[in-house]
Amino acid sequence: MAGPTPRSFARVRDEWNNWGERDPLWAIVSVPEHRGNRWDEAAFFRTGVERVDGLFARLRDSDLPVRDGTALDFGCGVGRLTQALARHFPSVVGVDVSPAMIRSARERNREPERVRFEVNPYPDLRAFGAGTFSFVFADIVLQHLPPPIALGYVAEFLRVVAPDGLVCFQLPSGPASPWLGWIPAAVLDPAYNWSRRGLRAVHLASPGWDTHWVARAGVMGAVNAAGGNLLRILAEPPIHGRLVNQTYAAAPRTMSSAPTGHPITGTG
Ligand SMILES: C[S@@+](CC[C@H](N)C(=O)[O-])C[C@H]1O[C@@H](n2cnc3c(N)ncnc32)[C@H](O)[C@@H]1O
């Protein structure tokens, strides 16, 4: 029995570009009463500061300091998190697959001398050399991409981050309720044909966008294969109350000898 077909890279790009034209702030932070371009911009950007400052406090508590340098905000949308990252780093680059999102981000850019936004239309980060960034962040992005593509970007994050840098990316790992658990393996995985690669990954389809999840073991495998260590898994509120959600902190393997770099070797 075939499950729903996930959106392709091109379709994800086109749909997000469409959201970027129509209702970008709501598509990024989907609070029902702000639908139809009814987000107060200041309140919207405050959510970015809360997210970034909250994450950085947790990283400090986890003994994962972030060093100065240039940060990359992957899937930056209109720059909600990019601008918040600029409070912590001397320079920040936001990239997004959607030209409309990047146009909006540039229009709203409060610090163009330190913050820049670029369209990245590729399933990789070919525009950036190895070791360019001290911090790489991807929040509410990878879940919308077919998992093989999302994990390809994770490998790219580990390439473009500096040897003493840190990568943080958020990605759900599965349904919160056990009774939903049979659906992926029995119905959806065969449709994706990913189970053969040992990657248990499925998605919730909606008219607006897909939400995928990847089991923690799949994420750990991708990080290891890319020469990285998974250092921490920080719990996040469930998505739609239904999906177990977390932010992964990872670093190039050279960091494993640093005091903070005790790699995770199994997933809970
Ligand atoms: C839910 S929004 C999140 C935006 C931003 N991270 C934030 O939290 O404010 C998802 C963003 O990911 C972007 N996106 C989707 N696929 C992408 C890809 N392959 N590469 C870069 N950005 C992508 C979309 O255009 C959209 O701006």
Biggest β-sheet: strands ordered side by side in the sheet: 3-2-1-4-5-9-8
Bound compounds: S-adenosylmethionine
Give average pLDDT, whole number. 85
Q: What would you call the shape?
A: globular
Q: How many strands, which pairing sense, and closed or not: the largest β-sheet?
A: 7 strands, mixed
Task: Provide the CATH architecture.
Answer: 3-Layer(aba) Sandwich
CATH superfamily: Vaccinia Virus protein VP39
CATH fold category name: Rossmann fold
Number of domains: 1
Uncertain stretches of 5 or more adjacent residues: 181-203, 255-259
Cα(first) to Cα(last) distance is: 31 Å
E-strand count? 9
**DSSP strand content:** 25-35%
- The arrangement of helices and strands along the chain is HHHEHEHEEHEHEEHEE
Name of the top-level CATH class: Alpha Beta
- Helix coverage percent: 25-40%
What's the number of helices?
8
How would you classify the helix and strand content by structural class?
alpha/beta
Rounded to an integer in angstroms, the radius of gyration calculated over CA atoms is: 18 Å
